[in-house]
């Protein structure tokens, strides 16, 4: 399902492993009192655990709030409070930023998204309406304060179906995903579409022209959906 290209190795995760990670995260959320409709934020770089946490949040019926990894502690605090998030999943690189951001909000739980999610009994998938919020994506805030855009489960399915009418993606494809997953295009092209058909997604630990060329050459990439600056690179 997912490969992470690192400078010295490639870490691979099968669909079974990704599924098990997502179910475990969902079960932890349910056991921790997170209910359908509750918001859970994510602050981390692209990898299989980011995907698993995102899918686990949706499985629990909660709403995912992906955060820009360039946010300052003040911006993280603003978005977490504005969204009403109860949980903030972070990778080790952003632990200090998260702690600074939420030092006055002890009720918000900070969780290492790479840590084991415990041995809670596996919770069944939550029941929720197609009109229920799935994701809140925040605008970049270049002209004013960031604003949360709510996407429902129906919105995501409609996006998926519309894209498949234009682009053919199968389980034989390998996609190179360099856009951050808090980006709306990345969530569609490098998560929803490939996972819907069983394709392979390759994320890069470091992004530069050398690693891009290496990935295109060594990972048998067949699809590269991106923004112009990366094509220029």
Description:
With 233 residues, the protein is of the alpha/beta class. It has 8 helices and 10 strands. The chain has helices spanning 15-31, 48-59, 73-83, 95-101, 153-164, 184-197, 209-218, 228-232, and strands at 2-5, 10-13, 39-43, 63-66, 85-90, 109-112, 133-138, 148-152, 174-177, 200-204. α5 packs across α6 (184-197). 36% of the residues are buried.
Topology:
Layout: E1 2-5, E2 10-13, H1 15-31, E3 39-43, H2 48-59, E4 63-66, H3 73-83, E5 85-90, H4 95-101, E6 109-112, E7 133-138, E8 148-152, H5 153-164, E9 174-177, H6 184-197, E10 200-204, H7 209-218, H8 228-232
Parallel strand pairs: 1-10, 3-4, 3-5, 5-6, 9-10
Antiparallel strand pairs: 1-2, 7-8
Main sheet record:
4 strands, mixed
Q: Helix and strand string, N-terminal first?
A: EEHEHEHEHEEEHEHEHH
| Mean residue pLDDT | 93
Instruction: Please give the order of strands in the largest beta sheet.
Output: 2-1-10-9
Please give a handful of descriptors for the protein shown.
233 residues, four-stranded parallel beta sheet, globular
Summarize the structure.
The chain has 233 residues and is of the alpha/beta class. It has helices spanning 15-31, 48-59, 73-83, 95-101, 153-164, 184-197, 209-218, 228-232, and strands spanning 2-5, 10-13, 39-43, 63-66, 85-90, 109-112, 133-138, 148-152, 174-177, 200-204. The radius of gyration is 17 Å and the shape is globular.
């Amino acid at each position: 399902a997912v490969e992470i290209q690192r400078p010295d190795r490639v870490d691979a995760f099968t669909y079974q492993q990704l599924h098990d990670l997502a179910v475990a995260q969902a079960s932890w959320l349910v056991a921790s009192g997170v209910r359908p409709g509750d918001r859970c934020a994510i602050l981390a770089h692209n990898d299989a655990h980011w995907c698993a946490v995102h899918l686990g949040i949706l499985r629990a019926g909660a709403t995912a709030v992906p955060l820009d990894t360039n946010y300052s502690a003040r911006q993280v605090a603003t978005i977490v409070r504005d969204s009403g998030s109860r949980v903030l999943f972070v990778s080790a690189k952003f632990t200090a930023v998260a702690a600074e951001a939420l030092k006055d909000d002890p009720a918000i739980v900070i969780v290492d998204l790479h840590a084991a999610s415990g041995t809670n009994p596996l919770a069944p998938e939550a029941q929720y309406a197609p009109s229920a919020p799935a994701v809140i994506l925040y605008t970049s805030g270049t002209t004013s304060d960031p604003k949360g855009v709510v996407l429902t489960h129906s919105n995501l399915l409609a996006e998926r179906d519309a894209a498949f009418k234009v682009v053919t993606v199968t389980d034989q494809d390998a996609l190179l995903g360099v856009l951050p997953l808090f980006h709306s295009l990345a969530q569609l092209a490098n998560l929803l579409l490939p996972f819907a058909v069983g394709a392979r997604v390759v994320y890069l630990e470091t992004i530069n022209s050398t690693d891009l060329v290496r990935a295109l050459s060594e990972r048998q990439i067949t699809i590269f959906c991106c923004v112009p600056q990366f094509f220029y690179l």
